[in-house]
């Protein structure tokens, strides 16, 4: 359902965003109250799917449709939710507790019909979106952060083995690299750092990950920065829409030991995927007067997940607790349960944020992280052998604040 002139009662709940976070809030509320009015506003169709599967689906030959557990329409009907699909929220008036809506499918602002709805409680579950540095033009570069865009990329890759460059070797970029390799594609993984996951783990740990990635046949270019991407016209059909991409990049001074970056012969590839991090759009938080940190997103109270604005909560990728962005799936159920109890006026003990266990979904190496890791700090080796590395991050009081365990894969006996 697109935006229309519609009224929502002042005791109702409005949720912005139909990702895992938004649907978890709906599940949690409906588990405790079957009747309270809920409206879900989303810029897409609202379909339910498990986003982490996007980094594994190409090699498994699962299409976007295969990943959808329920369409937005069916899920909304099952949960007795009013779905405003393909609808964007353009403004939040916290005084009147009203939202201004517009159809996300209208391209001409002059012919756009606006609508307003009221809310009793508002939940911001709008997620985060990919960062595209200036050197990665959005019209030439893919991202794997949403099922619709994933489906479009998958269609392009279905024509046969192709060369794909992935910019950014964090968790997502490293997982996609293996997935594409397993699907039969040539993969080049490019990162500013010398090894994958270098913004999370110490060099001794990331060196093992880099070795495992390279051993698979992935071309890893560490210490390199992409400076530009251009489309090379396909002379065979007179069109540049399907031509090769030229990826210009340079070796950073820190990697070469020189005083300046050194240009390298450009790569010629079929596709480029950006995996250069996430950011939260500040327009709605700013409109609502919600406290916002440009680096970590919406600031939420640690115990209630309320924002500083009355009647407004935040959950998932768009919010942060105690200065740390919450961009993992595991805590969402507990976050949603707390928001549901707080909105419904139920007694609750408050949300207790526990850093989730982080696992790299790669077969080439087993990487498991607990706590709140960071690349720098007092990392101490606990166990070290050819097959296993365990390191602890100690805080100023010599207390373990994070642990990484890296194991070589178990190779089945013939």
UniProtKB/TrEMBL annotation:
Name of the gene encoding the protein in the UniProt record: norW
Family in the record: Belongs to the FAD-dependent oxidoreductase family.
Source domain of life: Bacteria
Gene3D superfamilies xref list: FAD/NAD(P)-binding domain
Organism, scientific name: Psychrobacter glaciei
Protein name listed in UniProt: Nitric oxide reductase FlRd-NAD(+) reductase
Residue ranges of domain FAD/NAD(P)-binding in the record: 12-328
Alphabetized PANTHER family for the sequence: NITRITE REDUCTASE [NAD(P)H] (PTHR43429:SF3), PYRIDINE NUCLEOTIDE-DISULFIDE OXIDOREDUCTASE DOMAIN-CONTAINING (PTHR43429)
One Pfam family matching this protein: Pyr_redox_2
């Amino acid at each position: 359902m697109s935006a229309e002139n519609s009224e929502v009662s002042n005791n109702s709940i409005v949720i912005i965003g139909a990702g895992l976070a938004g649907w978890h809030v709906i599940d949690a509320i409906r588990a405790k109250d079957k009747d309270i009015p809920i409206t879900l506003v989303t810029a897409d169709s609202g379909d339910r799917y498990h986003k982490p599967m996007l980094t594994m689906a190409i090699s498994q030959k699962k299409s976007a449709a295969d990943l959808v557990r329920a369409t937005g329409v069916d899920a909304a009907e099952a949960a007795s939710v009013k779905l405003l699909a393909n609808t964007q929220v353009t403004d939040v008036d916290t005084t009147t507790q009203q939202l201004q809506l517009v159809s996300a499918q209208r391209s001409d602002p002059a012919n756009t019909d606006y609508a307003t709805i009221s809310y009793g409680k508002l939940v911001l579950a709008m997620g985060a979106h990919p960062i595209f540095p200036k050197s990665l033009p959005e019209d030439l570069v893919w991202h794997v952060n949403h099922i619709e865009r994933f489906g479009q990329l998958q269609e392009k890759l279905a024509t046969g083995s192709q060369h794909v460059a992935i910019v950014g070797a964090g968790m997502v970029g490293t997982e996609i690299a293996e997935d594409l390799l397993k699907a039969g594609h040539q993969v080049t993984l490019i990162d500013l750092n010398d090894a994958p996951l270098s913004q999370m783990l110490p060099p001794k740990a990331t060196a093992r990950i880099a070795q495992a990635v390279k051993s698979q046949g992935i071309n890893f270019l560490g210490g390199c920065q992409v400076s530009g991407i251009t489309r090379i016209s396909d002379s065979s059909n007179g069109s540049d829409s399907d031509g090769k991409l030229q990826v210009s990049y340079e070796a950073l001074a820190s990697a070469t030991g020189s005083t300046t970056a050194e240009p390298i012969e450009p790569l010629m590839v079929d596709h480029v995927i950006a995996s250069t991090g996430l950011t939260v759009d500040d327009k709605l938080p700013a409109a609502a007067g919600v406290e916002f940190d440009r680096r970590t997103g919406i600031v939420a109270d640690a115990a209630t997940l309320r924002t500083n604005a009355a009647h407004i909560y935040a959950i998932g990728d768009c919010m942060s607790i105690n200065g740390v962005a919450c961009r993992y799936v595991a805590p969402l159920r507990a976050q949603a349960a707390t928001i549901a109890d707080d909105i419904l006026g139920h007694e609750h003990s408050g949300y207790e944020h526990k850093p989730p266990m982080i696992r790299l979904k790669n077969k080439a190496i087993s990487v498991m992280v607990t706590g709140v890791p960071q690349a720098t700090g007092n990392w101490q080796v606990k166990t070290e052998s050819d097959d296993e590395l365990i390191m602890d991050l100690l805080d100023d009081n010599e207390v373990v604040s994070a642990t990484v365990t890296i194991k070589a894969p178990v190779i089945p006996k013939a």
